Amino acid sequence: MDSLRKDTKGQWIALSGLVISLIVIGLAALANQSMVAGYYSSNAVLEFPKENIRELNSHTRDNAMIIRCLSLELNSTSNNSVPVIYEQLFADYSSQIETLYAMHGETVDVSLVSLNTSSGTYNSSDIDIVFVNITYNDGDTYYVSQPEIIEVRK
Amino acid sequence: MADDRGQIAVDFLLGISLFLIALIFTVQFIPGMFMAGSARESSLDYTAYRTATILVEDTGWWGNSTSSGTDWEEHPANAMRVGLAVDDDTSSRLTNTPNVLSMNKTVQLMQMNDEDLIEILGLYNNIDGTRFSYGYNISITKNNGPMVLDGRPVMLGETAPSDRETSKITRIVLVEAGTVANFDADDLPIDPYTASVEDTILNITGPLENTIAIQINGLNITGIDPSFKKLTLDGVNLNEGIDYTSYKVDINGTISTLTSTGKIIDTDIIRFYLEPGLLNHSQTYQLEINLKDITFTKIAPPFVDYRDGIEVYYEPAYLTVEVWQ
Amino acid sequence: MNDRAQLHTLEGLLAAILMTLTVLMITQSTTIVSPQNELAIDVQLEQMGADTLTVLDRASNTSIRYNLTQCVASWDMTEATYPANNLIILDSSIGNLIPGILYNVDLAYVDNGDLEVSKVIIKGQPKENAVVVRHFVTLTNQTVQSMNGSWGLADDEIKVVEVRMTTWTV
Fold first, then answer.
1. B254: which of B14, B289, C19, C89 is 20 to 30 A away, CA to CA?
2. Given a cut of 70, is residue B97 above it in pLDDT?
3. Which residues in chain A have Cβ-Cβ distances shorter than 8 Å to C162?
4. Binary contact (B39, A37; C-beta < 8 A)
5. Are A42 and B42 in contact (CB < 8 Å)?
C-alpha cells in the first residue's frame, strides 16, 4: 500500500481520463443544445394555432355570405326585415361556433357589429359589407380582429 | 515530496491545453462545424416550412413610391414578397384565399432568376455577416409528375442532392390550370340537325388556341346502355385520342376514360378535352355531342355557347419545397 | 537552444490532427443518421391534414366532385361502424389527396343545445403520433336537400358542423 502511494508515475493516466471526460461532456453539451434547438422550432410551429385562427376567419367569411343568401330568401316569406333575420341567424351561428370551439378548450367570440349597404335599403341584394368582431384565445395565443370587414356581395 | 518522478504530466497538460484552446477556437469561429446535427437541420426545417407557407398562403405584395398591391406578377421588378395565392381584389391585403394558387403568379415565379428568388424568399443564412445561400427545389406535382403550366413544368432550383441532408415540406394546393366550360345537361338543346334527342350541340366561337375542356353534369339516363358515341365538329367526325379525349368522373371523383368503360350513370360527369388547332379560325364552330340512351330536352335555337359555361379550373396538386445547405 | 526531440513535437501535432479529424467525422456522420426529427414529421402531418380540409372546402365541383360542405350535407345521420364507413364521397376525396395516410373523421354539431359527436369514417385506431385538424361548415336546408342528406333542418335554420379529422401514419 505504501509503495502504491509513493509511486507517482501513473498520474498521466488519471489526468488524461479527466481531460477526456471533460471533452466528452463538452461535446455532449453541444449535441444536446442543437437537439433542443430543433425541438423548440418544430414545437413552436405545432403549438401556434395558425390553422385554427385561419379557419375561424375564413369560415366566418363564408358563413356571412351563406346567411346573406338565406336571409334574403327568408325575407320573401317573413314579416321581419332582412337585417332582423340576418342578426337572428348570425346570433345562432355565434352560439354554435362558440360551443364547438369550447369543446376543445378554445374560447372564441364572433359577433356581428353592423350590416352596411350602399343604397340604404336591405330588401334586395344590397347588403355588401358586414362588420364582425372576432376574438380567439387558446390560453397561449390571443387573436383579435375588430372589426373583420367582410365583403358579402359576390 | 522530494520525489519528483511523475511530474512529467505537466508536458501532457500543456499539450492538451493547447489542443483544447485550438479546438474551442475552431468551434467558436467556424460555427456550424460541430453544430452540424439538429441545429442546422432545424433551421433548414424552418426555412422549408416558412417558404412553403409564404408561397401557398400569401398573395405577395409589390410597391413603389406611388402605389402598391398584391398583383406583384404585373410588377415583378417592384415585388416585395412573392406568394402564389389567388386574389380577387389586388388593392386590399384581406382577400387572399390560401391554398388556391394563381397561374399567372406561378408562371411569373418561374421566370425569376435564381439570385432574386433566394433574396426574396429568404433562402439563405447569415453567419457572422457572410451570406450562405441554401440549395432549393420548389415544384408543383400531380399524379407523381410535374404539373405543366404555360408549356413548362413547374420546377424551380436544382435537383436535391442525395448525399446531403435536406429538409422538405409538402403542401396540398389547388392550382389554376386553365378553364373548363361546365354545363348542366338540362340547359343543353337537342341537336336540330339530327333531330335525335340523344344528341346535343354546343356553339364554340373561335379562335381558341389552347386545349379546351367541356364538362356536362346532370345527365338524364333513359335507356339500358347509356354511353358516349362520338364528337362531330361542323359535320366532320373527330378522332378519339387524336382530336380529343373523353372521360367520366364518377360520384367518388374517380376519373376513367369513356370509351373503355362505356356505361354512364346519372351521377357521372362527362368531360371532353379538345386538342389545340381545331378551332383556329375566327368563326362560330358547332360541336355535336352524340350520346346513346341519354336524352336532352331543350329545343334549339337558342344554342348554348361555350363561353357561357366557362369557369376557372383548379386542379388539386402538391407543392413541395426542399432546401439544403 | 535545445533542438532535441523535434520528432516528439511533430508526433504531438499529428496526434492533434488525428483527434480533430475523429471528432469532426463523428459529428458530421451523426447528421446523416438522423434525417428529420420526429416533430418535423408531425408538422408535416398536421399541415397535410389541414391542407386537405382547406382544399376540400375551397374546391369548386370542377376540380373535386363534391366540396366539404356538400359531403357533410349528404350524411344520412347514422354512425359508422368499423370497417364500414358511411360518408363514402368524403372518404374517397380525402383518400385521393393524402394517399398513404390514415384518418378518422368525426362530425360534431350542436343539437337542441346539446353537443353531438358522431364518427363517420373509421380507418382504425390512431397511433401515438396522430394529429387532429378541424374545419367548420355551415349547412342550410337548401344544401342538405340538394345532396339528399337527412339532417332534417328547417328552412330558416343554419347548422354549424365541425369536421374533425384525426390523421396518422403507419
1. B289
2. yes
3. 100, 103
4. yes
5. yes
Under an 8 A CB cutoff, do A11 and B45 touch? no
ipTM score for this prediction: 0.76
Q: What is the pLDDT of residue B39?
A: 46
Give residue B132's pLDDT.
83
Residues A13 and A80 in one domain: no
Judgement on whether residues B93 and B195 belong to the same structural domain of the protein:
no
CB contact under 8 A, B37 and C44: no
CA distance A17 to A15: 5
In sequence order, what DSSP letters do the residues of B160-185 get, joined into one string? PPSSS-EEEEEEEEEEEEEEEEEEEG
What's the sign of the alpha-carbon dihedral A118, A123, A127, A133? positive
Q: To the nearest whole angstrom, how far is the Cα of C38 from the nearest Cα of chain B?
A: 11
Question: A82 and A19 share a domain?
Answer: no
Collect all residues of chain B within an 8 Å Cβ-Cβ radius of residue A54. Answer: 57, 98
Within this chain, do residues A31 and A79 fall inside the same structural domain, yes or no? no
Is the Cβ of A31 closer than 8 Å to some Cβ of chain B? yes
Reported as a pLDDT band with limits 50, 70 and 90, residue C36 is low
Cβ distance of C109 and A96 shorter than 8 Å: yes
Q: Are residues A41 and A95 in the same domain?
A: no
**What Rg value do the Cα atoms of chain A yield, rounded?**
32
The pLDDT value recorded for residue A122 is 60
Reported as type and span, the H/E element at residue A36 is helix A11-47
